[in-house]
Design brief:
The protein has 16 helices and 11 strands. It is an alpha/beta fold and 393 residues long. The protein starts with a helix and ends in a 7-residue tail after the last helix.
Length: 393
């Protein structure tokens, strides 16, 4: 996970005399990078979550610091370090009050402290942390791809705080528009803050266009909260759909691949049913369908049960397939099917009789179950056909 300001600034008071004077509530924010800015007009090159240093060179007095701090906060910076010396004699009280009220960490360092030294250390630690996170993500990607390699990654994951005897939950987020890890980091840092505060180790990374979260010893409450925090990512763009799948809890590294498959199945089920987030435990018959890896078997089953009806609709321009599905979804209620489709019940009865003749089967409970399963299989096959030319991503 991304490094927090609190972690980055550990021991800096002793080493650099860097003192936090306001904004304590923001120390849990994550840090993207550090910049030195002297212009009172905060530039637009900030991406968000940067820690800013300033010496005040070129300014007269200290009062400009209040508006400068407000501008930094508005641009998405997560803190300000003021170099007290010949250009800034002290931090005005208005700036201190603003930072404290808005959880915007405000630090001071003495003139004797060389900004280049502290900024170099911070950048080095940010890069090292990102390399560590990248290594962890690569390990989980490798395990997901081939669970037999779990032992190969065990030692490294142990050093990072992930253990083979722990339980793991996998969540997958898919958007209908492009999403990248950098977008998640910079536009919804609440995800990273929440993961940090949970106290349990987590890995958040991209896999083939999806955002994947592997969480260790995660409670049900934390999973629900995490799903709620993912919602704002979808709201950043108009006409964007979001689907989240959550696996069951599994134990050990080798089972993470299975959890990934579960979360993927749950996510696709959500897409089929138009639900924003779905837990694998709740997908019912879809477990059986997604459990069949040979798509030919699924296609054959659907064809055996519904093929003749699809061909009849195509040749005669009828709507028997859609009518039958609605009838089955409403537990065989003619009245409800008529109300849903806006026709008279006699029309539904006529169509159901015609469907029996076309299928050559009575619609008993067994047949209804087989037909409904065939419809669900068609839903899954349609989703697969829309994913990368019919292949699962």
């Amino acid at each position: 996970m991304a490094i927090t300001l609190s972690q980055l600034c550990a021991n800096t008071e002793k080493k650099y005399s860097m003192k936090l004077i306001a904004g304590h509530a923001g120390m849990g924010n994550t840090v993207r990078w550090v910049h030195i800015i002297e212009d009172s007009e905060v530039p637009d090159f900030l991406h968000g979550n940067e820690l800013i240093f300033t010496t005040g060179i070129g300014h007269v007095g200290n009062e400009w610091l209040k508006s400068f701090t407000v501008s930094l906060k508005n641009k998405g910076a997560i803190g300000l370090v003021v170099n007290i010396g010949p250009y800034i004699s002290s931090v005005p009280s208005q700036a201190i009050v603003f930072c404290e009220q808005n959880g915007f960490p405000l630090f001071t360092i003495p003139w004797k402290t060389r900004i280049i030294d502290i900024s170099y250390e911070f950048c080095r630690r940010i890069i090292a942390n990102e390399k560590r996170e990248s290594t962890i993500a690569d390990a989980f990607r490798g395990i997901i791809r081939n669970p037999a390699t779990a032992d190969d990654y065990s030692s490294m994951l142990n050093r990072a705080g992930f253990y083979d005897d722990s339980s793991y939950t996998v969540s997958i987020l898919r958007k209908s528009v492009s999403i990248t890890e950098s977008v998640v980091r910079t536009t919804d840092m609440s995800l990273w803050r929440m993961l940090k505060k949970s106290g349990n180790h987590s890995s958040l990374f991209m896999k083939e266009g999806d955002l994947v979260a592997v969480r260790q010893n995660c409670s049900e409450e934390e999973i629900v909260m995490f799903c709620e925090l993912l919602r704002p990512i979808a709201e950043q763009s108009a006409d964007t759909e979001i689907y989240i799948g959550v696996s069951e809890s599994v134990r050990g590294f080798a089972e993470i691949s299975q959890a990934y498959e579960q979360s993927y199945a749950a996510m696709l089920t959500g897409r089929i049913k138009g639900k924003e987030h779905v837990f694998y435990r709740d997908i019912g018959l879809m477990k059986l369908i997604f459990g069949v890896k040979d798509k030919m078997i699924l296609s054959s089953f659907a064809e055996e049960n519904l093929g003749v009806l699809h061909r009849y609709d195509s040749e005669k321009n009828t709507d028997y397939c859609s009518v039958l599905r609605k009838y089955l979804e409403l537990n065989g209620s003619v009245l409800e099917a008529a109300a849903e489709t806006g026709v008279h019940r006699n029309t539904i009865n006529y169509k159901i009789r015609a469907i029996r003749e076309i299928l050559g089967r009575e619609l008993d409970d067994h047949t209804k179950s087989m037909l409904m399963l065939a419809y669900l299989i068609e839903d899954v096959l349609d989703i697969y056909d829309n994913l990368n030319g019919g292949n699962k991503q």
